[in-house]
Amino acid sequence: MRYEWLDEQVDEIIRLYVDEDQSMQSIADEFDVSSGTIRKRLLENDVSTRPEGSRYVWLDDHTEDIVERYTEKGESLQTIATNYGTSADAIKRRLLESNVELRDPPSEPDDLGFTPAQVSIVVGELLGDGCLYQMESGSCVFQVTNNKREHVAHVKRRLPDGLISSGQPYSVTRSNAFTDGDYTQWVIRSRVQPLFRELYDSWYESYEDRHRKVVPENYKLDETALLHWYWGDGNCILRDSGAPRVSFATHGFPEDSVKTLQSELESLGYANYTVKQKGVTNGSGLGIRLRDGSSRHFIGQFGPRNVVSEYDYKFPTVER
């Protein structure tokens, strides 16, 4: 049963699960549905789920460090939350419980606050065609460019309200270097946020006369980021045998970054290997492919979570 009336309660379900640390079962009890129904709604909205019964109680063991980061090092709620993989509200609650007087939030730029799932969405897009632009002031904005309007519109919906203006996405028509025709791309560009400046410091490095994207050595890939990475820079083909071949276009990343992503895919249970592409001058030229069994598992795992109909071709029906 779909429980269509729950569609109007999705934001509240996400808030209770992510910001209030409630379990799926407690949310299910509140809405008088099963925990499986709640889990499905969370996955449909790019929210990585945690093992049932696991709340952010482990943050209690880090209260002293959280207080020190906030009071002595001057870190923002969002910076601390990103470090611990939780929400700014969860950090705020720990500080209030420790009788810490909160600072007034910065007025320029306003820190909108990102949930862990929203940070994962941004990072997943960075693994694909998303990018961060650093302005002369040092502040950074986030941009996604894609030839699928539905993709960028979905990203906009899942990020904080007010981050991207109401007139977006907007289209840009460019000349195709390989044909005589033109092609259209869709773009969303954010307002300035402290989080983007922090991400820029770890996800970009100086390279010759410019900056290029890299993957931090300590980066931990999760399912939300993986799905957005695949949407942006992944592909699947069905071979004559009927076996799928899932691949990720990581050719532009340096070799160390590709190795980090390989390791993270392995940690999520996806065996993989690299394939060298000739003629790549601004990266390692290494693309990542999942092995046959892992490709089947990946399509079976993420196919039901694909909410961008324009990407149905990336999740073909696989016959065993």
UniProtKB/TrEMBL annotation:
A single GO molecular-function term is: endonuclease activity
Q: Which UniProt keywords apply?
A: Endonuclease, Hydrolase, Nuclease
Lineage, top-rank taxon, reads: Archaea
Domain LysM, by residue range, is: 73-93
Q: Where is the Homing endonuclease LAGLIDADG domain?
A: 120-286
* TM helices/strands, residue ranges: none
- Which protein is depicted? Endonuclease I
